[in-house]
Amino acid sequence: MNGRRGVTTVAALGALVLLGGCGITRRAAVSTMVPILEKTVEVLYRDQDLDTVEKGMPGNLLLLRGMCESSPKNRDLWTLGAQLYFYYAMGFVEGENPEQAKLLYLQGLSMGRAQLDRLDWFRPDLDIDAFAEELQEAGKDDVPLLFWTLANWVSWINLSMNEPAAIADLPIVEVALERVLEIDPTFFRGMPYAFAGTLWATKPVLLGGDPELAREAFESAFEASGRRLLFFQVLYAQSYCRQTLDQEGFRKTLDEVLDAPADLDPDYRLLNEVAKRRARTLLEYEDEWF
Fold first, then answer.
1. What is the pLDDT of residue 2?
2. Is the pTM of this model over 0.90?
């Protein structure tokens, strides 16, 4: 299955579910479809046809939201929705339209929170120490839902640092991300490390930002991924190098991304192609940032 057929398959299967039968029948059909959808996403990650995926994703994201509404307790489906909203926003929108990306991240965050808020241990309404204590109940099976929710949350915060609501959310996100790092830091080739690095690099020092801690987190992400998931290098250049005014590191890291072979990581070829495109966009800002 190539990228075009994968995108079409998601749409076709989803339409059959939403058009068919009563609520119980639809929920049963959605549950049956989840493994197929997850496999379709794996196939898409291996593709390199960015144009087809970019054109196909918006309609499929809306369809996926409809499927979620038809099966409100299907945690795996809502987790998939949070994941795909994050990747669409990060990979295809943020570089060109940050304001639209913020809306997409908020939608991905909303989908993740819809399921997290059902869990007894997710209590961000508590004071931060009590929240951290409750998070100890989270286990490895909770990591995908928790992490993809946080990926949207961190990304929204990074684009909204001038908004009081984003600043207020920083302690909540940081504590939850630290719990993910305790449970399964190598999830998705070490992505929790990369997002911890992003958060600690972009968070103002007066609010607890720590560039050195950020650098260490990125080094852990590079080690976990074998430097084959180029998305991490892009995050490193965009956050750490920019915040520390490391122009040499910025240029060197993005050149590494652009010079990497297309088959560096066959399982995540699409993500690496997205990283290359994002690297080219970031280099256009080099003179402005440094």
1. 53
2. no
The Cα–Cα gap between 197 and 214 comes to 4
pLDDT digits (tens, 9 = 90+) for 46-55: 888 888 888 8
**185-203, pLDDT tens digit by residue?**
999 999 999 999 999 998 8
- Kindly state the tokens that stand for 148: 């993809």
105/83 Cα distance (integer angstroms): 10
Burial of 76 (0-12, 13-18, 19+ CB in 10 A): middle
| Rounded Cα–Cα distance for residues 175 and 136 (Å) | 11
CB 190 within 8 A of CB 221: yes
How many other β-carbons are positioned within 10 Å of the β-carbon of residue 289? 13
